[in-house]
């Protein structure tokens, strides 16, 4: 199975790392909108300009699109689904139905298979919501994120006047998680589930009180949360906040029994040293599934909900039944 | 969708409870090898003799077989797969390949769809091993069971001379779980992962020292574990050990990055008040999937690995993408 990486940021590099563990996958190349001469891949795999992608129509089985959800993927995924089987990590929740429709149309018209919104949320977390809801319909689920770096929130802080750099951690409230893990089904406000910790490098002489106020009052991003702001030097930020860890938990409590007398708790948790590398690892496993589904004539746009677990694995059906069932 | 319950013990009653949460499912009846007059269902659904099952060939879409793995299911599932779409919870690990083959042959010859080894282990835990292994091939997974009642171990104690009744709890060793959760991949002996707690009611005048010795030295069941034996009265056993709680965790640690520098931990945990009711709840969700797969002409024997999450859910594909992705 031959894959290509379209877009070479943190996620693209994560895919490049991940494929080395998959003995059935060959990486054909990296495609970038930058000058290919200026891009050095970690593994030494060739770099091509994105404009040359059409030349690889018959040389790539699945193209892994590693662009941003805001502006890249809404254009790239439908366009590339005309010539390739594709997979992306589109995560703008409200726009998923529209993105799905556009990718589905492009893929079907050209006999390709596509999968959108892979990764861990959307992705593995979504699957866990489906499994636990199907098994325990009489229940309630909760998703907690963190402790981890939110790139969107970090970017929002960086746009404030007087800020040189920033890193924002989303932190789940332990007492809320403990209540849910104890089998209870409380209603939480936004503030009761997560808090936000910001580490900010201010320009020399900037008004830090004004910056802190602007962060804490920023609508959507921070106003609904308890937010802490800590000013640090650039050296401290680089030394202590260079990584992109993340994680979280999906927890569902459900009741069974004729009088709903029994409670069950299903929990799926991730603790990730590197959000982009783990997301990339999920994309690679789903690229394998897309390749197999396309081989069976199953075309159009899919999501993680449409993929049977066996299609993700390097093992054969016999091996899976023998070793993992 | 019309289902039947074949076998009416704890698991059959669990299925009867579970279906009331599924608005798309009608329960046709319970089938028993006992005298139907002697069996009262909790919901009042009719009880028929197992011998009359063939009369229901066109009245039941999926038959949920609630028998034991030791002697019932190896006979029942292949036999019933000739006339019905069937599902079971066969859990004798070493015999799964053979059971699969026999059920697959019977189902294919007659155009039916079957699913074996559903539940939570085998079942949801197996799925989690596949997802986490596919995403993090460079890693190691661990399964911990409990704290929960093992019926097989309780039965083994009951067979000892001088024992009136017994309840055995499988208990995971917290320090082992913590080591794995911390990202390490140790090798554990059997004794280092789980311990066994036994609550035993002895006959009047029985030699409790001899009973305790027989339990602790029983090969396969107890000899490889640290086992505690507590003698209790029948009243205490009934008051404090009447339930069938269980649970456990599947944890995988995997590494990514060009120098394997990043560690990720994936954990799936269950805490169940009632093992049979939760297992039954999983069976009902998979019965829906089997019904749909059969409707698409997908015949033969399946396992949980072959079922896409979407097929388990009452929601449509559109609703799933909108609400759970």
Notable traits:
homodimer, 325 residues, alpha/beta, 7-stranded parallel beta sheet, 4-stranded mixed beta sheet, 11 helices, 14 strands, 34% helix, 26% strand, globular
Question: What's the number of helices of chain A?
Answer: 11
End-to-end distance of chain A? 26 Å
What is the general shape of chain A?
Answer: globular
Rg from alpha-carbon coordinates of chain A:
22 Å
Helix content of chain A: 25-40%
Mean pLDDT of chain A: 97
Question: How many extended strands of chain A?
Answer: 14
Question: Main sheet of chain A: which strands, in order across?
Answer: 3-2-1-4-5-6-14
Largest sheet of chain A: 7 strands, parallel
Q: Roughly what fraction of the amino acids of chain A lie in strands? A: 25-35%
Question: What assembly state would you assign to the polypeptide chains in this entry?
Answer: homodimer
Structural class of chain A: alpha/beta
Run of helices and strands of chain A: EHEEEHEHEHEEHEHHEHEHEEHEH
Low-confidence stretches of chain A: none
Could you tell me which chain pair has the largest interface and how many residues each side has?
A-B, 72 and 72 residues
Walkthrough of the structure:
The structure is a homodimer of 325-residue chains. Chain A has 325 residues and is an alpha/beta fold. Chain A is 34% helix and 26% strand. In chain A, the strands form three sheets. Chain A has a seven-stranded parallel β-sheet with strand order 3-2-1-4-5-6-14, with helices on both faces. In chain A, strands 8-9-10-11 form a four-stranded mixed β-sheet. Chain A has a three-stranded antiparallel β-sheet with strand order 7-12-13, with helices on both faces. In chain A, helix 3 links the parallel strand 5 and strand 6. The longest helix of chain A has 21 residues. The interface between A and B is large, with 72 and 72 residues. Strand 13 of chain A pairs antiparallel with strand 13 of chain B.
């Amino acid at each position: 199975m031959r894959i290509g990486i379209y877009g070479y940021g943190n996620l693209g590099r994560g895919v490049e790392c991940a494929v080395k563990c998959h003995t059935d996958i060959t990486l054909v190349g990296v495609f970038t909108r930058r000058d290919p001469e200026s891009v050095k891949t970690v593994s030494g795999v060739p770099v091509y300009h994105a404009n040359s992608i059409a030349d690889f129509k018959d040389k790539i089985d699945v193209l892994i699109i590693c662009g941003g959800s805001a502006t890249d993927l809404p254009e790239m995924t439908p366009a590339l689904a005309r010539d390739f089987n594709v997979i992306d990590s589109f995560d703008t929740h409200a726009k998923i139905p529209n993105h799905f429709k556009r990718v589905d149309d492009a893929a079907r018209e050209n006999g390709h298979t596509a999968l959108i919104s892979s990764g861990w949320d959307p992705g593995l977390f979504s699957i866990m919501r489906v499994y636990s809801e199907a098994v325990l319909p009489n229940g309630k689920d909760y998703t907690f994120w963190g402790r981890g770096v939110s790139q969107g929130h970090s970017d929002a802080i960086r746009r404030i006047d007087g800020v040189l750099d920033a890193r924002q951690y989303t932190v789940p409230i332990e007492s809320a998680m403990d209540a849910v893990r104890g089998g209870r089904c409380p209603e939480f406000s936004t503030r009761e589930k997560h808090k936000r910790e910001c580490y900010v490098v201010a320009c020399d002489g900037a008004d830090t009180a004004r910056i802190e106020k602007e962060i804490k009052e920023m609508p959507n991003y921070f106003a609904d949360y308890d937010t802490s702001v800590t000013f640090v030097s650039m050296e401290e930020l680089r030394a202590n906040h260079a990584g992109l860890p993340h994680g979280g938990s999906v927890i569902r409590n459900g009741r069974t029994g004729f009088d709903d007398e029994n409670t069950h708790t299903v929990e799926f948790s991730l603790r990730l040293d590197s959000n982009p590398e783990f997301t990339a690892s999920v994309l690679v496993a789903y690229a394998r599934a897309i390749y197999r589904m396309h081989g069976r004539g199953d075309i159009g746009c899919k999501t993680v909900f449409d993929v049977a677990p066996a299609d993700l694995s390097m093992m054969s059906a016999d091996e899976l039944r023998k070793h993992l069932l």
